[in-house]
Design a protein that fits this description.
Layout (H helix, E strand, L loop, with lengths): L3 H5 L3 H7 L2 H10 L5 E2 H5 L6 H13 L3 E6 L2 E6 L2 H28 L2
Antiparallel strand pairs: 1-3, 2-3
Helix pairs in contact: 2-5, 3-5
Length: 110
């Protein structure tokens, strides 16, 4: 049986955002705590500014990055809170599977 907290939390947008290699790479760059512009994030890739912008918007919609306007540029920074939320969600799912397997083991060993 799913707990109420697991039933009410929807991790799908976060998993969808994390399900792309480019977005994971962008998050890795931003996870050092430094905010960066699109130009700064394009530096060592073959991607266009438009492609980076598209990926950053997906990450922003999932709550993983936040953008702030600095002059004419947007600066993007990593937000770790959604990762902690999904970690707690996965821990709950894991505990429920552990509990179910223990019940099954107990039943089989009777």
């Amino acid at each position: 049986m799913l707990s109420d907290s697991i039933r009410t939390y929807d991790p799908a947008p976060l998993f969808a955002a994390l399900g792309d290699r480019t977005r994971l790479s962008l998050l890795t760059k931003l996870s050092d705590g430094q905010s960066r512009s699109i130009a700064g994030l394009c530096g060592d890739t073959n991607l266009t500014r438009q492609a980076i912008t598209k990926h950053l918007r997906v990450l922003e919609n999932a709550g993983l990055v936040i953008s702030t306007k600095v002059g004419r540029e947007s600066q993007f920074a990593f937000r770790p809170e959604p990762i902690e939320e999904v970690r707690a969600y996965l821990a709950g799912v894991s505990q429920q599977w552990d509990d179910a397997l223990l019940r099954l083991r107990s039943f089989v060993e009777r």
